[in-house]
Specification:
Layout: H1 7-12, H2 14-30, H3 37-51, E1 54-55, E2 74-77, E3 80-82, E4 96-105, E5 108-117, H4 123-142, H5 149-162, E6 166-167, E7 173-175, E8 182-186, E9 203-206, E10 209-211, E11 217-219, E12 226-228, E13 234-236, E14 239-244, E15 247-250
Antiparallel strand pairs: 1-4, 2-4, 3-12, 4-5, 6-10, 7-8, 7-9, 9-14, 10-13, 11-12, 14-15
Helix pairs in contact: 2-3, 4-5
Bound molecules: magnesium ion.
Length: 260
């Protein structure tokens, strides 16, 4: 069921959006060559506790997950692109890191993801991240009254395929509200003018995640971490946005922190 939020409810979602934005900015700042993925999870857990928030991930156990997730952040490195379960791995020079983070605060959820390189970046990784961020920006630009879900999907695919990257549509954007995953589902590829018409009060997470050269995935023995089938790298960018009569509001915007 698709739920629409009142302007007052959208205002009530701002604090959780801000907390998720601040946390991702902090974690990106602190994540370096030599950082252990388990330390990122511990730090995120500490920030959640201090804020009085609740992790959406720690007890998360959907049909595709082997067991409850058990951690509070997804850390996907290099050819891992989605649902990376933090494990005992020390980041190396040039690693491409995606952090995906969702919490509930005062009963409202926000969900956001960033990708970045630690140490010396490879040009092809920076290009992949840049396209992922531009695909997200195009998706947000398309999230306006008068458009439909398919216009968002087509915006993501247009940017991504235009730069020669692959899209796997097994996972995509989703409604966000009292819980992390609600209707509607927003595929990362689709036809313009199709699907549910966008309305004021619709709050959604938009999340292009792109792969360099395949759309096929394999799952790690941990039951969660999704990797490209050919070992090529992936990147992921996500914001929670509210569609309003005055245009989209990016609830997890980090620009007020002086970062992108
Ligand atoms: Mg997310």
């Amino acid at each position: 069921m698709i739920e629409l939020r009142t302007p007052a409810e959208i205002e009530a979602m701002r604090p959780v959006g801000r907390f998720v934005a601040e946390t991702l900015a902090t974690l990106r700042d602190e994540t370096k060559v030599g950082t252990n993925l388990l330390a990122i999870d511990r730090r995120a857990h500490d920030l959640i506790r201090r804020a009085g928030a609740e992790s959406c991930y720690i007890d998360y156990h959907p049909s595709f997950g082997a067991s409850p997730f058990g951690k509070v952040i997804c850390t996907s490195v290099n050819d891992a692109v989605l649902h990376g379960l933090p494990h005992d791995y020390v980041l190396r020079d040039g690693d491409l890191v995606s952090l995906d983070f969702a919490v509930s605060l005062n009963g409202w959820v926000a969900d956001s993801a960033i990708s970045f390189v630690v140490g010396t970046p490879r040009d092809e990784d920076l290009a992949l991240i840049d396209t992922t961020e531009r695909a997200l920006a195009a998706a947000i630009d398309a999230a306006v009254i008068g458009n439909r879900i398919g216009d968002i999907s087509a915006a993501i695919a247009g940017v991504s395929h235009g730069d020669g990257y692959s899209i796997n549509t097994d996972f995509g954007g989703h409604g966000v509200g009292r819980i992390m995953h609600g209707d509607p589902h927003i595929p990362n590829d689709g036809k313009p003018g199709r699907g549910f018409p966008l309305r004021a009060g619709l709050v959604v997470a938009l999340e292009p995640w792109l792969l360099q050269s395949t759309d096929q995935l394999i799952t790690d023995p941990d039951g969660w971490t999704l990797r490209s089938a050919d070992g090529s790298r992936g990147a992921h960018s996500e914001h929670t946005i509210a569609i309003t009569d005055d245009g989209p509001i990016v609830l997890t915007d980090r620009s007020f922190l002086g970062v992108d």
